[in-house]
Amino acid sequence: MHPILTNRSRTILYVASWIPIAALLIGVVTRGGAISYGEAALILIPMCFLYAFVCQASWYLCVAIPLRQSDLARLLATEAMAAAVSSAIWVGIGWIWVWTIDSSGYADGIVAKYVAHVPILFFSGLLLFSLAVALNYLLITFETSQLAEKKALELQILNREAELKALRAQIDPHFLFNCLNSINALVTIDPIAARRMCVLLADFFRGCLKLGSQQRISLSEEMHLAECYLDIERVRLGARLHVEREIDRESELCLVPPLIMQPLIENAITHGIAPMVEGGTVRVQAERNGAGVRIVVENPYDPELGAKTGVGLGLKNVRMRLSNLYSDDARMDVDRGGTRFRVQLQLPCQSAS
């Protein structure tokens, strides 16, 4: 069905737009004085409203002959023939209408007056049908453009979801690889610690399966996952690993992407604490600041050892996840000043309550 006819408001507006067209035709045929305004209105008002719907048939012709995919000569010839046939039918229906009026005795001699204006009406019919064709091609182009934009947006959303799934899929194997290496190292020197680490690892992944499938979780739940990870690392590093927490209670209600902090803490331990003989303290902060939440993970850092071990995949994944989820509304700042390595996340805060 024609898109104008599928919407009641559009149909009323379209029909109303033919009122000035009818008035213009009445003015044209009455210029010579051969036909009165009353007679012209009696003939042309019903004819114009009828032709308003006849012109809608051009929509199907425009759909059948796409503007960009058709030969120009064939398109013009087809549209011209359709306009001529439509205009001829319109004029013929008009003659039947005038003959009916004349037969009723309401306006004697009106048939002759109508026949005198047939060429003008036929030409007007050609012009109106051609304008309808142009309007329909414009509507088709507009609808095609909107459909293309909608499909592009859907593809963009699907692409983002695929990227996020791929990034999150990278985190688990990366983390698991590091844990298995640690368990392998502990098996020979401390079997009890290796067994405890396996149990903690199972608990951690159980939590990941429960919360990691959600789009957003509260910061308190995210901190619980981080604590599970820290329990695993404490088995490996013992007294060399210390953790300081400064978590604002208001910030705990903020919704954050699941497993957004674990890579930061893992990076702090793997590239900061673990390479240092004396170990160090990982400092975790979270606080509300206006409409957002600020999360900071800070650790001691040996520039020489850091240059050898690198920063790792975790920070890159976090940055890409933030870009996909929040675009420019979130950011990650990394500061390697002196002997401290500091990562700060600034996220919009959507409250969990």
Give a quick set of tags describing it:
about 15% strand; alpha+beta; 11 helices; Heat Shock Protein 90; 3-stranded antiparallel beta sheet; rod-shaped; single chain
What do these coordinates show?
- The chain is of the alpha+beta class and 353 residues long.
- The chain has 2 domains: 8-151, no CATH class; 190-351, 2-Layer Sandwich (Heat Shock Protein 90).
- It has 11 helices and 8 strands.
- It has helices spanning 8-29, 37-54, 58-64, 72-103, 110-116, 118-189, 191-211, 219-237, 262-273, 303-309, 313-326, and strands at residues 217-218, 241-247, 254-256, 280-289, 292-300, 331-335, 340-348, 350-351.
- Strands 2-4-5-7-6 form a 5-stranded mixed β-sheet, with helices on one face. Strands 1-3-8 form a 3-stranded antiparallel β-sheet.
- Strand 4 (280-289) and strand 5 form a beta hairpin.
- Helix 6 (118-189) runs antiparallel to helix 7 (191-211).
- The longest helix has 72 residues, at 118-189.
- The radius of gyration is 38 Å and the shape is rod-shaped.
CATH architecture of the largest domain: 2-Layer Sandwich
Uncertain stretches: none
Q: Give the helix tally.
A: 11
CATH class of the largest domain: Alpha Beta
Strand order of the largest sheet: 2-4-5-7-6
Q: If you average the pLDDT, what whole number results?
A: 83
Going by CATH, what is the homologous superfamily of the largest domain? Histidine kinase-like ATPase, C-terminal domain
CATH domain topology of the largest domain: Heat Shock Protein 90
Order of helices and strands: HHHHHHHEHEEHEEHHEEE
The first-to-last residue Cα distance is: 47 Å
**Main beta sheet: strand number and arrangement?**
5 strands, mixed
Backbone CA Rg: 38 Å
Helical/strand content category: alpha+beta
How many domains? The number is 2
| Number of strand segments | 8
Helical proportion, percent range: 55-70%
Shape: rod-shaped
What portion of the residues fall into strands of 2 or more residues? 5-15%
